[in-house]
């Protein structure tokens, strides 16, 4: 949920020396990939968990994805080392709200949650002490029943008082008594498309394990929100079981893991995006020496914001200076009017196939698929970043299929007009993206996510 507002004071846990030694890993899948469709079928999940039961690549498929993106953004401007994963394994899935999800264990004894992984949010929260939360069971969940976090059931849980040095919200400055709870409110979106979570800040153990083993479990204390009241899409259609913030904020999960003595890792993580929706998420990964890099721009929202100086489409170079957010939770890349027009017209001018209009499709620049698809020449799309490195979109187009015959009949340039500039998931496919919070660097490299 890319645009949020959260009342946060400058907070930094006692920063422990974090020599690079380990990384934490997991797999993720696009929620509309074939692998996830197979998983939902095997777990009894209904078609509601897929995009309107739309065939992959159909008009309805892309319309369903766009619906979430517009909602999401309305109103908002390998090194060597041991690999760790969440204790339940390294699989993650992308479901409701177009976010990636992973199973995590909290507390003693452990309680299991399926939480959304959000690079655009700072705070980790789960439903707890519920006054207004999403239902734990619903027809849209199929045979899956979620749970709410139970403070009293965990022997290691601890509420944080507003007078504590661990209270990072505004409640620390509005503390009515030393024993009053540290409270939080985090908002997503705006206006008719807003949602929020509010509650108290608690501390408990998050469980991790070495990838490939089941015996070497590591548990670290982290701060997270006990979400008592959820509103908007968080009650219907959004993450029903919690959300894990992966932004560059000091209170995000990557930062809290890096600050802890239990595991010595760099405050950095990577996401690798496979063409079929399969992927990996590695905490502590700083990438490799041969990766491309650019500096992250400082911004109060803790988004992963970079500066671009050129848009290169095929043989055409457009000198354009602008900033863009790199956001894995957005399906389609999008640009403001002038940049969108330059990119799209440069692309269209170098395509030999007939341009066509497709009713209901969210893309404007679409072209008939030639009879000999092997000879279709698609112009490359790349961006020059601040510092000189080139970021190339390996798969700038999306195929469009006939819903009846399942035959591809067109392809479209996969960009949308937004009121901000976003490099979305479709431009990240085929690459490992490194979010190095410690060095304030974004890295990328073409990568085989299966290796």
From TrEMBL:
<dbReference type="InterPro" id="IPR032861">
    <property type="entry name" value="TAXi_N"/>
</dbReference>
<dbReference type="InterPro" id="IPR001461">
    <property type="entry name" value="Aspartic_peptidase_A1"/>
</dbReference>
<dbReference type="InterPro" id="IPR021109">
    <property type="entry name" value="Peptidase_aspartic_dom_sf"/>
</dbReference>
<dbReference type="InterPro" id="IPR032799">
    <property type="entry name" value="TAXi_C"/>
</dbReference>
<dbReference type="InterPro" id="IPR034164">
    <property type="entry name" value="Pepsin-like_dom"/>
</dbReference>
<feature type="signal peptide">
    <location>
        <begin position="1"/>
        <end position="21"/>
    </location>
</feature>
<comment type="similarity">
    <text>Belongs to the peptidase A1 family.</text>
</comment>
<dbReference type="GO" id="GO:0006508">
    <property type="term" value="P:proteolysis"/>
</dbReference>
<dbReference type="Pfam" id="PF14543">
    <property type="entry name" value="TAXi_N"/>
</dbReference>
<keyword id="KW-0732">Signal</keyword>
<dbReference type="InterPro" id="IPR001969">
    <property type="entry name" value="Aspartic_peptidase_AS"/>
</dbReference>
<keyword id="KW-0064">Aspartyl protease</keyword>
<dbReference type="InterPro" id="IPR033121">
    <property type="entry name" value="PEPTIDASE_A1"/>
</dbReference>
<dbReference type="GO" id="GO:0004190">
    <property type="term" value="F:aspartic-type endopeptidase activity"/>
</dbReference>
<keyword id="KW-0645">Protease</keyword>
<protein>
    <submittedName>
        <fullName>Eukaryotic aspartyl protease family protein</fullName>
    </submittedName>
</protein>
<feature type="domain" description="Peptidase A1">
    <location>
        <begin position="100"/>
        <end position="445"/>
    </location>
</feature>
<keyword id="KW-0378">Hydrolase</keyword>
<feature type="active site">
    <location>
        <position position="118"/>
    </location>
</feature>
<dbReference type="Pfam" id="PF14541">
    <property type="entry name" value="TAXi_C"/>
</dbReference>
<feature type="active site">
    <location>
        <position position="327"/>
    </location>
</feature>
């Amino acid at each position: 949920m890319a645009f949020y507002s959260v009342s946060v004071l400058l907070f930094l846990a006692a920063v422990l020396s974090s020599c690079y030694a380990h990384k934490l890993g997991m797999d993720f899948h696009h929620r509309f990939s074939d692998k996830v469709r197979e998983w939902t079928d095997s777990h009894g999940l209904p078609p509601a968990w897929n995009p309107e039961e739309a065939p992959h690549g159909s008009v309805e498929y892309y319309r369903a994805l766009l619906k979430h993106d517009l909602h999401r953004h309305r109103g908002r401007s390998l090194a060597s080392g041991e690999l760790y994963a969440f204790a339940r394994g390294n699989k993650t899935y992308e479901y409701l709200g177009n976010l990636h999800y992973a199973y995590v264990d909290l507390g003693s004894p452990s309680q299991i949650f399926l939480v959304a992984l959000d690079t655009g949010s700072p705070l980790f929260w789960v439903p707890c002490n519920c006054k207004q939360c999403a239902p734990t069971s619903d027809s849209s969940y199929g045979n899956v029943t979620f749970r709410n976090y139970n403070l009293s059931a965990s022997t290691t849980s601890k509420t944080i008082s507003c007078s504590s040095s661990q209270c990072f919200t505004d409640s620390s400055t509005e503390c009515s008594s030393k024993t009053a709870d540290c409270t939080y409110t985090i908002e997503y979106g705006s206006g008719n498309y807003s949602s929020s979570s509010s509650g108290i800040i608690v501390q408990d153990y998050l469980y991790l394990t070495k990838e490939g083993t089941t015996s070497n479990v590591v548990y670290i204390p982290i701060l997270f929100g006990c979400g008592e009241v959820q509103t908007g899409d968080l009650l219907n259609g959004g993450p029903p079981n919690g959300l894990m913030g992966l932004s560059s904020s000091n209170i995000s999960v990557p930062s809290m893991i890096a600050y802890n003595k239990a595991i010595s890792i760099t405050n950095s993580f990577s996401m690798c995006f496979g063409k079929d929706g399969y992927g990996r998420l590695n905490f502590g990964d700083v990438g490799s020496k041969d990766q491309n890099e650019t500096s992250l721009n400082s911004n109060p929202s803790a988004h992963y914001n970079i500066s671009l100086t050129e848009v290169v489409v095929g043989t055409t170079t457009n000198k354009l200076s602008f900033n863009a957010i790199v956001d894995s939770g957005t399906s389609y890349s999008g640009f403001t009017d002038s940049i969108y027009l330059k990119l799209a017209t440069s692309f269209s001018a170098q395509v030999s196939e007939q341009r066509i209009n497709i009713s209901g499709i969210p893309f404007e620049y679409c072209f008939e698929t030639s009879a000999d698809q092997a000879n279709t020449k698609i112009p490359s799309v790349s961006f020059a970043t601040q510092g000189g490195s080139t970021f190339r979109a390996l798969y700038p187009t999306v195929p469009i299929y006939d819903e009846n015959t399942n035959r591809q009949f067109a392809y479209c340039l996969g960009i949308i007009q937004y009121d901000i500039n976003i490099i979305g998931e479709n431009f990240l496919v085929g690459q490992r993206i490194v979010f190095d919070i410690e060095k304030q660097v974004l890295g990328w490299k073409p990568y085989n996510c299966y290796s």
